[in-house]
Give the backbone structure.
Amino acid sequence: MKKKLSFLSLLLSLAATAQDVSTTSSQSSVDNTAYNKWSVELNAGANKPIRAITNKYFTPTFNPTHIDLGARYMLSPKFGWKLDFEYDKFSERDNTPPFESTYLRTSLQGVVNLGRALNFETFTNTFGLLLHTGLGASQLTSKNGFEGEDYMVNGIFGLTGQVRLSNRVALTADLSGIVHGSQNYNFDGMKASSSTAIDGVIINLTAGLTVYLGKNEKHADWIGGKTISDDLERRLSLLETSLLDSDKDGVADLYDLEPNSITGVAVNTKGQSIDHNQNGVPDELESYLDKTYAKNGGNVPSNNNIEELINGGYVNVYFDFNSTKPTNASLSGVAFLVKYLQSNPSKSTDIIGYADEIGSSGYNTELSRKRAEAVKEIAVKSGIDASRLNVIANGEDTSVNKNSKEARQIVRRVSFQVK
C-alpha cells in the first residue's frame, strides 16, 4: 500500500509541474487572436505490455489493436493541455495459451512544444516535436480470466513527431509509455498483479493525423518563425534592391546620398555631385555654364537645357539649421536664377521652400515658407518683378535619413520650377 501511495505522489508531482509550466507560459503568451488553439488528434497503431503478464502467457511483439482520440488546447505556442481516450486489445502470441483482454484509458496531460522551445522555426516550419505527460484512469476487462473490471490509475509520458501537411492538417507519429498503479490483475487477466508501486507498463507506437480548428490562418504549433530559406530570400531581395543604381552614377542606392544626380556629372564616393564652392551647382555644370555665359556676353542663354537643369533641382539655395538666411556660398544659386529670368522676361518661376524633419510639421512648413520668401526678396531686390515669383511652402522633405546631419543639410533648401 505504501508503495502505491508513493507512486501516486510521484504522478501528482508530475501533474503539478505541468500546471506550473502552463501557468508561466500563459502569462507570457502572445495575442490570443493571432493563432488557433484547438486541435483534434486521431491515432492508430500497436501496443506492447512489457510487465504484469502471467507466467507462460505471452503477447506478440506488438499487438496491432490500438486507437487513440484526443483533443488539445494550447495556452501559448509552447504549452498546452490535452485530454485523450485510448482503446487497446491484448491477446496471445502464436503457440501460447490463449487470452483476450480489453483496455480503456483516459488521461489529462500537459503538452510542451519542444520544437518551438528548441527553436525549430529557425530552420524549418514543416517538422515539429511535442512532449506530453500527465495522469489518468484505466479500465481492464478480461474475456478469459477474472470477472468484472479492474480499475487503475495511470501516468503517461510520450513524444510526438509532427509533419505539417498544411495549415489545417499535420501527420504525426507518437511513442508513449504508460505506467499503472492500483492494478489488481495482470494484463492477460489470468492472475492477480504484484503489489509494487508501479505495476503494469505499456508501450504504444502510433501514427495519425492532427486536425487544427479555428478561424485564424495557423495553429499555435506553427505560428511565427521563418525558415532559413525565407530569411535568405529576404536578404537576397534586400541586397538586390540596395545594389540598384537609379541615377547611374556608379554609386549603389544603398550608399548614395544624392540618388538623383545628373548623368555624367562627377560624384564623390557617397554619390553627391562634386561642388567644391558649395554654391548648389555641380562643378562640371558650373564650368559648362561659365563657358556658355562667356560666349554670350555674360547673359544666360535661353534654351531648354538650362531650364531643364533648373527644374531638375540642380540649382538650389541652402540654409543652416533653423535659419531663413541663405548660406553665403549658395547665393550664387539665386544669382544664376536672376540672370536666367533677366534673359527670359516671359518666364516666371515657383520658389519652393523645404525644411528637414527636425521639429514639428507645422513649424517646418512655416520655416520652408520663410525661406522661400527670403529668396524671393533677394530676387526682387535684384530687379525681378515680384509678379513673376510664386512662393510655395513644401514643408518637410522626408526623402533622406533624418538621423544624418549631412543628409539634412541637403534638404534645407529652396529650389525652383521655371514656367
User: Anything to note?
Assistant: Residues 1-32, 293-302 have pLDDT under 50 and may be disordered. Helices lie at 2-27, 114-117, 228-242, 283-295, 304-311, 331-343, 361-381, 405-411. Residues 320 and 409 are 7 Å apart (CA to CA). The radius of gyration is 40 Å.
